[in-house]
């Protein structure tokens, strides 16, 4: 039996808004019976699909979160019968009547100046770059990273982001949130886990803490 229980989304939101915030990092690892037959996620989009299909424990074999967690194609195991499962947060963004889930990141970009972007990050590593060096995928919060620099400065920051040295920077603002609302003057391009989904001015975002557990393979 798996040594944890996935609570309902409504309950999770109530927990995240409680006066005494839960320290999710303290229990984001679980020891479980090792299983050979788990549904497999090969990238971040697969994580969301499996979560939406009702899976609570999956095998993770690729994607941004896989790299952030140190995946190296070896099973994370204690011995022949036990493994370590990691409880990961998921993010949700609401655009009008539409809702989208993301596993690693959401990007909100200025259409004419795409280097002026806001990243909502659940994975420290995005496309082999440490966009959020101090981020954690199981702490019940996301990192909001706002880039408001010039094109030249953004190119320098992009090069440095491979090692995470692009921060601190006066034109890069980082904050940690469990939910937020944003409104822009003009419509922005919105992408979730690398896929453009919509253009919008108004955004509402929240975290689903410890939504799904993964075993690295």
List keywords for this structure.
11 strands; eleven-stranded mixed β-sheet; 217 residues; single chain; mainly beta; 2 domains; disordered N terminus; Tumour Suppressor Smad4
Model description:
With 217 residues, this protein is mostly beta strands. It folds into two domains: 9-91 and 211-216, no CATH class; 96-200, Tumour Suppressor Smad4 (Sandwich). It is built from four helices and eleven strands. The chain has helices at residues 9-16, 44-52, 64-68, 151-160, and strands spanning 29-33, 40-41, 57-60, 82-95, 98-102, 105-110, 117-121, 142-147, 172-177, 179-192, 195-216. Strands 1, 2, 3, 4, 5, 6, 7, 8, 9, 10 and 11 form an eleven-stranded mixed sheet that branches. The model is unreliable at 1-18 (pLDDT under 50).
Principal-axes shape call: globular
Low-confidence stretches: 1-18
Mean pLDDT: 85
- What proportion of the residues is helical, as a percent range? 10-25%
Distance between the termini: 20 Å
Beta-strand content estimate: 35-45%
Strand count, sense and barrel status of the largest sheet are: 11 strands, mixed
The first-level CATH class name of the largest domain: Mainly Beta
Give the number of domains.
2
Discrete helix count: 4
- Here the CATH topology of the largest domain equals Tumour Suppressor Smad4
* Structural class computed from helices and strand pairing: mainly beta
Q: Write down the Rg.
A: 17 Å
DSSP summary, beta strand count: 11
Per CATH, the architecture of the largest domain is: Sandwich
How do the SSEs run, as a string of H and E?
Answer: HEEHEHEEEEEHEEE
